[in-house]
Amino acid sequence: MGFDVRDDRRYAESHEWAHERDGVVRVGITDFAQDELGDIVFVDLPATDERVEAGTPFGVVESIKAVSDLYAPLDGTVVATNDDLDDQPELVNDDPFDGGWMVELDPGGGLDHLLAPDEYRDGL
Question: CB 3.0 to 4.6 Å from 115: which of 11, 17, 42, 77, for a disulfide?
């Protein structure tokens, strides 16, 4: 099965994506990750102004199959969370790259350490 991998993003090996625009980095999980998790029923995200560190858990996603940590793909400070996920966690399944985004970060660095789209595709 082919999974959607957007060319305008960078990817963590833990299957989170990062998209930088206007100095803010939006983060979510990949199409592959949401497919592996199955139907998502709950998303727990950090508070605004909370600091996250690359490679460490910043939240939790619960599906009918499992409870999984979400890992920060980069250092940063949370400037926004997707409040729509409180009432509609299924947005992560339906639209992982747009409506199902999770947090926006004021980045503490660049995205160069993350996988390019082709590198991520090759690892699937």
Answer: 11
Q: Which residue has the tokens 């995205």?
A: 111
- Interacting residues of 9 by C-beta distance below 8 A, sequence separation 6+: 17, 18, 19, 97, 117
Mean pLDDT of the chain: 96
- Listing DSSP states for 71-107 in one string gives E-SS-EEEEEE-THHHH-TTHHHH-TTTTT--EEEEE
The C-alpha atoms of residue 32 and residue 101 are separated, in whole angstroms, by 14
- With contact defined as beta carbons under 8 Å apart, do 93 and 16 qualify? no
Beta-carbon contacts of residue 66 (< 8 Å; ≥ 6 apart):
37
Q: Assign 122 a pLDDT band (cuts: 50, 70, 90).
A: very high
Query: Hey, where are the domains in the chain?
Result: 10-117
* The model scores a pTM over 0.70: yes
Query: Cα separation of 47 and 94, whole Å?
Result: 24
Please report which confidence band the pLDDT of residue 61 belongs to, taking 50, 70 and 90 as the band edges: very high
